[in-house]
Give the backbone structure.
Amino acid sequence: MLDLSRRQAEILGFLRERDATEHAPTLDEVCAALGLRSRGSLHKHVRALQAAGLVRAGANGRGLQLCYPDADPEETLPVLGRIAAGQPIEAIDQQQYLAVPSILRGRGQSYVLQVEGDSMSDEGILDGDWVVVEHRETARNGELVVALVDDENATLKRFQLDGAEVVLHPANAAYAPQRYAADRVQVQGVVVGQMRRY
């Protein structure tokens, strides 16, 4: 397990999107995709990911490719950390891979988060469960979302856009809905699957 910065998680997410293409993206392509002006800061993150065995140079030493230690890349999704089903906490803190059946995956780029807390327990989402999240930046009312609040903390809740506010609804009577100005909330993804270990 490795503590990752947000930028390192973004790099891994981009590489996963490009993993099925015919060539490994170059550092310039990664910079452009992530909106970076310089390769200097990117090098530091790439070196850390290479040292952790998560990325490697592509064929002929060009570009970057994902490494999948101990796992078949066709059967795994990245685990990007823990998500609160209670009060917001940081969602992205670790990186590993988890085998996920294709029936539980989203149509687009997807990842896995482990649930902490009990605010969604009335919907059968319990502390320690794993949720499969399809990366999206918008959601429809009633969808179960990963919402980033104030660019800092993420939480797992039912989404409702109510005029100029976003309401994040728990599924536990012990918790009140959370109301925020719409510009304080960013949808990071929509839950498309769930797994549990007994």
